[in-house]
Amino acid sequence: MATQTEDLRRRIVADINAGKPGTKLGSERELAERYRTSRSSLRQVLAALEEAGLVDRVIGRSGGIFISHAQVQRSLTDVVGVPAFLASQGYVAGTRVLSTKICAPDATTQQALSITADDFVIEIQRLRLADGSPISLELAQFPADAFPNLLEQQLGGSLYEILESKYGLVTARADERIEAVNATPEEANLLGIKPNSALLLITRVAFDQHDRPCEFSRDLFRGDRTRLAVTAQGHGVGVAPSVAAASVALQSQAV
């Protein structure tokens, strides 16, 4: 059962998610009356929300509590699931499983997972939430033969945790490619944004501890809510790195 403080936090977060960045929620006095709570309890919750980047508190006659909608940060140097990096930044992670199926792989998936047209893949589409607000849309595919009964598991959390605990698989590394794309009407509807809004498409092939491809996924992150981070290792002038940890490639412009 949620505590009074947690219930208050959820109610405020719901109002934040229903609003737009920059919108004034009200003054402390107005909010205390609206949520029927004490000023001290309200300030405790607002302090946590401000630290998480969800609200801004402005002092003065025209001040008050404003919706911030801070960006979440995704590291490019760690192989972690969405719940893990959201939790590390103070967000409550949520998931809506949109669809699951076992199907034949297309040519791109065959190449990514080193399988043939005669094989099958497990496909899982999910919507990821940060404090109840849509943050990303993901489509993940796995070799069906390698993960029997995967669709019978609880798919609302980290799939990497399921692969490790149920199948003994450890995700050792991942190759990722990042592109800027525009949201289709369907994607925009699911993510709560306008069509053609900017998205970050991260295409990933993950490998297990035996260096076998185990996952092929395409994640669409909201461009207005996501910041990418990478730590680059220096090698000195004129010294070539042994392994390219991150790179940027320009795509050819369509004629």
Structure description:
The protein has about 260 residues and is an alpha+beta fold. The protein folds into 2 domains: about 5-65, Orthogonal Bundle (Arc Repressor Mutant, subunit A), CATH 1.10.10.10; about 70-230, Chorismate lyase (3-Layer(aba) Sandwich). It contains 7 helices and 11 strands. It has helices spanning about 5-20, 30-35, 40-50, 80-85, 105-115, 160-165, 185-190, and strands spanning about 25, 55-60, 65, 70-75, 95-105, 120-130, 135-145, 175-180, 200-205, 215-220, 225-230. The strands form 3 sheets. Strands 5-6-7-10-9-8 form a 6-stranded antiparallel β-sheet. Strand 6 and strand 7 form a beta hairpin. The chain is elongated and about 65 Å long. Residues about 245-255 have low confidence and may be disordered. Keywords: DNA-binding, Transcription, Transcription regulation. InterPro entries: Bact_HTH_transcr_reg, Chorismate_lyase_/UTRA_dom_sf, Tscrpt_reg_HTH_GntR, Tscrpt_reg_Rrf2, UTRA, WH-like_DNA-bd_sf, WH_DNA-bd_sf. One of its GO terms (molecular function) is DNA binding.
The name of the CATH architecture of the largest domain is: 3-Layer(aba) Sandwich
- Strand order within the widest beta sheet: 5-6-7-10-9-8
Computed over alpha carbons, the radius of gyration is: 21 Å
Report mean pLDDT, rounded to a whole number: 82
Number of domains: 2
Output the CATH class name of the largest domain: Alpha Beta
Helical coverage, percent range? 25-40%
Protein name: GntR family transcriptional regulator [Rhodococcus jostii RHA1]
Pfam family, one: GntR
Keywords: DNA-binding, Transcription, Transcription regulation
Organism: Mycolicibacterium parafortuitum (Mycobacterium parafortuitum)
